[in-house]
Amino acid sequence: MAAGTDGALPRFACPDWWDRMKRGDVPMVDVALNPAKAAKALALFNRLRLPDVPGNPALATACGGWFKEVMLALLCSEDPETQLPTVWEVLCMVPKKNSKTTYTAALALTALYLEEAPNRQMLLVGPTKNISERSFDQAQAMIRLDPMLLATFHIQDHIKRITRRKTETSLDVKTFDTSIVTGEIPVLTIIEEVHELGRQASAAKVMQQIRGGGITKTRGRLMMITTQSDDAPAGIWRTELDKARAIRDGKAGPSPIMLPVLYEYPPELQKAEDYWEDQRHWRVVLPNWGLSIDPTALADDWVNNGKITRSAKQIWASQHLNIEIGVGLAAGWLGARYWDAASDPSLTLETLIARCDVACIGVDGGGLDDLFALAVVGVERGTGTWLTWGKAWVHRDVLEDRKEIAPRLLQFAEAGELEIIDEVGQDSDGVAEIAARLIAANLLPEEDAIGTDVTNLAAIRAALKAVGVTFEQLVVIPQDYRLADAIWGTERALKEKRLRHAGQGLTAWAVGNAKPETRGSAIRITKEVAGKAKIDPVMALMDAVKLIMREPVAAGSGSYLEADDEELLVL
Fold it and tell me: What is the pTM of this model?
């Protein structure tokens, strides 16, 4: 936890957030408010009534106190000395069924009522048309339940707009895309389900446009509210979540403008399935417990829908308990459970070469719309531990053709784990370059040194020959159930910590995507089962493990022997 020179914590740092949550308090620091403005905001907010609940109860009693604290912090924060706002952004992550959409609609109406500047714009944005229209329906229904509000606000259903008659400042409800911000920067933007934007490559650009108001005199406030994503966080969602956690933990500079409110378990408890599967621990991350959340109904849903399969558990836990998906809770491969604990961030290709006596390479990839992945597995000198490092290549066209994973791929490219290429052959040349480094270090065995699936053979054979890889060193690795021994061997090595990896996000993502199938007495991991989620780095790892399990001995480089493809050894 970083601290200022006077010992004070950075702004919005909340080191006791978990203790606060266990007490039933909001996991955020106490924020100084403008008392008059806060009283006015609460008066309007509490007056609003739930439009879709029998009896239409007022938010004075039907809204959890946690959300009122968040709302007041966003709309009414004030530095006691400067009288200027301190909170310009909020990221609130709260599980499903905690009335996010209804409460957010009420917050938007409250903000519209508080704004005294004329002819300004506010936005309430959803990632999809259904979510944005649901928000508008809730807001307009609240107004229509109250004659005073009908006299205060003008509703235009056909364009999804609500205007305060006194000021002509409007609230527009829109679906997130590149056209939502045109001309004037909104004085307030509310974005629901930010995690969905992790699948949109343009999201970062649009968020930058929205935040453009933050450097003007009027400034623009931003409210983001979301559940956790039902797959590993990516793109703009990964960026915003990491930023919020860093602020909460006091690691993001002295004066951030984002207030993090994250209803989640600490990382070690998110990985402890026995802990969060215990229903006694659910309430701590569900602030609307007993209000919009019926504990009995939630428990029944868990038994009947949540715990029926590993994949169902993944989705249920991410949505109802904000468990982050990745290798701590993956779709099914047992090795994923032990992946995090096997990380060695000091591992690079250079350190692997320096620490190992022998190494093998696995290569996997499909067509031009797929990843081309490589894994190096070496045997550490003195310990016998397997050390692994990986890299992948992808054609630029894939970013357009597979938009749903483009933000994630760009994230891996920025980390240097994935290379975006424009020409055919750059991937095979990249593999050859790495092979050449291992040859120079005398780490490749004399036989069975580089394993590839048959679809890659033609692509890489010439490139490998050019750097001195021999015919005996290049081998085809049969796929499907014939990789079962490598899959089981990797699982066991991970659990026993006899395999250490470089902690790369790309490989971790692929590990989380791996979904095994049992066929007879064998197991297989295939792209057909994984679907759009890429597993190429995992398959490259299995190809390399298949070779390293043969306990090879390193040899120097040799001459490439001419032979037909079909004559190559098949393991």
Answer: 0.77
